[in-house]
Design brief:
This protein is α+β, with helices and mostly antiparallel strands. The protein has one domain: Cytochrome P450 (Cytochrome p450, Orthogonal Bundle), CATH 1.10.630. The chain has 15 helices and twelve strands. The strands form four sheets. A five-stranded mixed sheet has the order 1-2-8-5-3. Strands 4-12-9 form a three-stranded antiparallel sheet. Strand 1 and strand 2 form a beta hairpin. The longest helix is centred in the middle third of the chain and has 30 residues. 43% of the residues are buried. It binds protoporphyrin IX containing FE. The site of protoporphyrin IX containing FE has 27 residues, from helix 11 and helix 15.
Amino acid sequence: MLETAPPDLFVNWLGPEIWNDSPEMYGRLCWLRKNDPVHWSEQSRIWVLTRYDDVDYVSKHQELFTSGRGSIAGAPLKLPLLDDEIEIHKIHRKMLGRGFTPKRVNALEKNFRRLTQKAILEVLWDGQCDFVEKISVPLPLLLIANLIGIPEDKYPELHQWSDDMILGVGSFNDPTAMERSQHGFVEFARYINDLAEQRKKDPQDDLISLLVGAKERGDLGTYDVPEHRPRGAIQETEESLALGSDEMTMFFVVLLVAGNETTRNAISGGIQLLIENRDERMKLIQHPELLESAVEEMIRHVTPVRTFARTVVEQTELGGRHMYPGQKVLLVYPSANRDAEHFDAPNDFRIDRNPEHLAFGIGEHFCLGASLARMETRVVIEEVLRRMPQIEYDGIEGPTIEPGPLVRSIMSMKVKY
Ligand code: HEM
């Protein structure tokens, strides 16, 4: 019923409220896919794209729909890589791509499995825990730290800085959240710069040494263009301006934020699906060869990143609608990934579907960390099914989900096993 009744479309697409994972949210997106797939929101002044083919097309045409004027709608500063123009993006991508080779992902997997087993063993005998707090949050953070080259004794602080920074994502109009976010940023950036100094003298096989090398060669510099300056709710200090305009520092901020909040929610969401779909869980236990397909289906079904944005570069047409330069476009991934034109019974969770989804985006800005995120999700699911095959919600409540336009954030999920 919800799918056919005309929903309320006079909503704020860039605020958190409507992104609450409710049947109403999915009903609205479904109605748009069928009736108004290239929807102009007068209230948010943005085109809202809900069909798979349109999200796919726009993502693959940077010359018409650029990321260069902000890929996160409303974000108060420009981020390297995500918000790069075509030419500079190619250079940055090549440079950073060296840190994400299959060889590196394989090397990280070994340590990640060890950390996952340790985290599970720590809570196993209690018979119950908050899965998000004990497993989904710390593990991706440890992996990013490993990738960057941050030593294990810094993990507690890194955890705090990361939480503070993430608080700002999606709360751009909340001064208190932005203040904490900026504080986390300055502390993290100071630490990264100290570590960079150490690596200059003593390079290691890690991402920080790679980028320090790039900075030394002059491949990374500083931003002096106004859009890289913090705006709105972010308070400018001399130090935050200097740190925020240093390309190397900002790369690490992007990695920390892009790699953590997303993967933690892929993992929590994957466990949520296994708890709520008992038959599929049993099938996976009996057929471990389906694990990779199951992980892909989890990532499609959960779609941890909800939206990214583009800006129209030149006048163009999409789905019979005229789009003009400067207009913003919202790519709605959870909708594209539930498009019945593309997926049979899209709301079903089927571990053998092995879908070609858009949860990692597509085109030039395709997620740089996709292979890492897949590996992390696979390892955690495998270890959970081995040690906690009976995992269930503790009590009647499922996960608590914080509404937000950027990420489907599962804040807590009490489980017993
Ligand atoms: C399940 C987990 C993840 C999801 C769903 C996800 C999703 C995405 C999406 C949708 C994009 C495309 C942005 C665009 O087109 O504008 C993206 C880009 C990116 N992701 Fe991920 N991501 C995940 C994990 C990670 C991890 C683990 C890392 C790093 C360690 C990472 C780093 C990045 C970076 C650096 C970009 C920018 C790439 C570019 O602009 O060229 N992501 N991600």
